[in-house]
C-alpha cells in the first residue's frame, strides 16, 4: 500500500490542456473516486498515475518516491480498464497468474495467490475455463483478479463496470467495496456514474473541464456542493435550478414569490434586483394540498404536472411553472399519483435551498 500524491499536475496534448492544477494526496489504503462528465480529464489523471501518460508539468509521488520519470512497469500499480482484455487461449487460473509468472515469482507463491484471489472473487469453480466460457461479469472479475494477484501498492480502475448490465454492475460494485475492505489497497477509481462514486468512495474528486471542482466525502459534497456544476452532477434526478431575481428577502421565480427568512439572507450579501440561480433537490420538495403553507422555513410554488413516473417505492413528477419553460423534478412517496395537467402546490424546504451566482456558478448560500 502507498499514498499517492499529485502536485499541480498538468497535461497538454499539443494545444489542448486536458488537465491542470490537479493536486491531491490520497492516504494509504483509501478508496478515492474521480468523477465527472465525459472529457473532464478523469482517464488522463489515472493514466498519468499509471505511467501511461507523462505529465507536462507537476510532480507525482507514489509512497515517498517521485515517479514522474519511473516507467509504468516499475511503479507497482495495477490498472483495470473498461475493456478488460483477457488472454483468450489461457484458462482463468493462467490469466490470473500471468503477471506473476512474468515477474518470475516462485510457483508455490503463485498457486497460493491464485487460490486466494479466486476465493475472494468467487472464481474457484471457474479456474479451468477459458474466457469465452464466462459471462461478462465473470470475465470482469477475472480481470480484477489478475490485477489483485500482483498485490500492487496502488490499484487503478478505469470505468471497470461500464460494460456490465445493471444487475451485474450492482453486484460487482458491492464485491469491489467488500474486496477493498478486506485488502485495504489504495484505490483510485474513475467513473462518470455518480451512483458508483457515491457508494464506493471514501473521498470523491469532482472534475469538470480538466480542473478539480471539489474534493470531499460523498455525503458532504452532496450536501454542500461548492458550485452549480457539482450540485447538478451529483444526484438523480438532478437538483432543480430556478433562475430568480432577488428583492427584499424575496426571490421572484417566473412571477411567483419565494419569501426567504431574514436569518438566511443575513448570512450572505444578496444584491437587490440581481439575478441568482436557486437550487433545490427533488427530495426536498413535498406536495401541499393547497397554496397555504403548513411548515415554517418553507415556500410554495404552484406548478402544473407534466409527467408522472411511478417507480414503486417513490414517484417522480415533472412539473412546469405556469407561463414559463422552467420544469421541476419532484421526488415523492410511491403512494402519491397525480395526473398530467393537475395543479400542484409544491412546498420547498428552505433549509435545503441553495443560491448560486449565475455567472461563476459558485454557491453563495
Ligand atoms: P471519458 O469519460 O469520456 O472517458 P475523461 O474524463 O476520461 O472522458 P479524458 O479521456 O481524460 O477524459 O480526456 C480529457 C481531455 O483530453 C478530452 O478533451 C480529450 O479529448 C483530451 N485528450 C485525451 N487524450 C488525448 C490525446 N491522446 N490526444 C489529444 N487529446 C486528448
From TrEMBL:
What GO terms fall under cellular component here? Answer: ATP-binding cassette (ABC) transporter complex, substrate-binding subunit-containing
Give the highest taxon in the source lineage: Bacteria
* Keyword terms: ATP-binding, Nucleotide-binding, Transport
Enumerate the InterPro entries for this protein: AAA+_ATPase, ABC_transporter-like_ATP-bd, ABC_transporter-like_CS, ABC_transpr_MalK-like, ABC_transpr_MalK/UgpC-like, Mo/tungstate-bd_C_term_dom, NA-bd_OB-fold, P-loop_NTPase
Q: Which SUPFAM superfamilies match?
A: MOP-like (SSF50331), P-loop containing nucleoside triphosphate hydrolases (SSF52540)
CDD domains attached to this UniProt entry:
ABC_MalK_N
Q: Which GO terms describe its biological process?
A: carbohydrate transport
For this protein, what is any one GO molecular function term? Answer: ATP hydrolysis activity
Give the residues annotated as coiled coil.
none
Which is an annotated Pfam family here? ABC_tran
Q: What residues does the ABC transporter domain cover?
A: 4-234
Write down the PANTHER family for this protein, in alphabetical order.
MALTODEXTRIN IMPORT ATP-BINDING PROTEIN MSMX, OSMOPROTECTIVE COMPOUNDS UPTAKE ATP-BINDING PROTEIN GGTA
| Name of protein | ABC transporter ATP-binding protein
Highest classification ranks of the organism: Bacteria, Bacillati, Cyanobacteriota, Cyanophyceae, Nostocales
Amino acid at each position: 500500500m502507498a499514498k499517492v500524491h499529485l502536485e499541480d499536475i498538468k497535461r497538454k496534448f499539443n494545444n489542448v490542456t486536458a488537465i491542470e492544477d490537479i493536486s491531491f494526496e490520497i492516504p494509504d489504503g483509501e478508496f478515492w473516486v474521480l468523477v465527472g462528465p465525459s472529457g473532464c480529464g478523469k482517464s488522463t489523471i489515472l493514466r498519468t498515475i499509471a505511467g501511461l501518460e507523462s505529465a507536462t508539468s507537476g510532480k507525482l509521488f507514489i509512497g515517498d518516491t517521485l515517479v514522474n520519470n519511473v516507467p509504468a512497469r516499475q511503479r507497482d500499480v495495477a490498472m483495470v480498464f473498461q475493456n478488460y482484455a483477457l488472454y483468450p487461449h489461457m484458462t482463468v487460473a493462467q490469466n490470473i497468474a500471468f503477471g506473476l509468472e512474468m515477474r518470475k515469482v516462485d510457483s508455490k507463491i503463485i498457486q497460493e495467490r491464485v487460490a486466494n484471489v479466486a476465493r475472494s472473487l468467487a472464481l474457484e469453480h471457474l479456474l479451468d475455463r477459458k474466457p469465452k466460457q464466462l459471462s461478462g461479469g465473470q470475465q470482469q472479475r477475472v480481470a480484477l483478479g489478475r490485477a489483485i494477484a500482483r498485490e500492487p501498492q496502488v490499484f487503478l480502475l478505469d470505468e471497470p463496470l461500464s460494460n456490465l448490465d445493471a444487475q451485474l454492475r450492482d453486484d460487482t460494485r458491492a464485491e469491489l467495496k467488500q474486496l477493498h475492505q478486506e485488502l485495504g489497497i489504495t484505490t483510485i477509481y474513475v467513473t462518470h456514474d455518480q451512483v458508483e462514486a457515491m457508494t464506493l468512495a471514501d473521498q470523491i474528486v469532482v472534475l469538470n473541464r480538466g480542473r478539480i471542482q471539489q474534493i470531499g466525502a460523498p455525503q458532504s459534497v452532496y450536501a454542500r456542493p461548492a458550485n452549480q456544476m457539482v450540485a447538478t452532477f451529483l444526484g438523480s434526478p438532478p437538483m432543480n435550478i430556478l433562475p430568480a431575481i432577488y428583492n427584499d428577502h424575496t426571490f421572484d421565480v417566473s412571477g411567483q414569490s419565494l419569501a426567504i427568512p431574514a436569518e438566511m439572507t443575513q448570512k450572505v450579501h444578496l444584491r437587490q434586483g440581481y439575478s441568482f440561480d436557486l437550487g433545490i433537490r427533488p427530495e426536498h420538495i413535498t406536495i401541499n394540498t393547497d397554496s397555504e403553507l403548513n411548515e415554517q422555513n418553507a415556500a410554495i410554488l404552484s406548478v402544473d404536472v407534466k409527467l408522472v413516473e411511478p417507480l414503486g417505492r417513490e414517484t417522480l413528477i415533472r412539473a412546469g411553472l405556469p407561463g414559463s419553460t422552467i420544469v421541476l423534478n419532484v421526488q415523492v412517496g410511491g403512494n402519491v399519483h397525480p395526473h398530467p395537467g393537475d395543479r400542484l402546490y409544491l412546498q420547498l424546504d428552505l433549509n435545503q435551498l441553495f443560491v448560486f451566482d449565475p455567472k461563476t456558478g459558485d454557491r453563495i448560500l
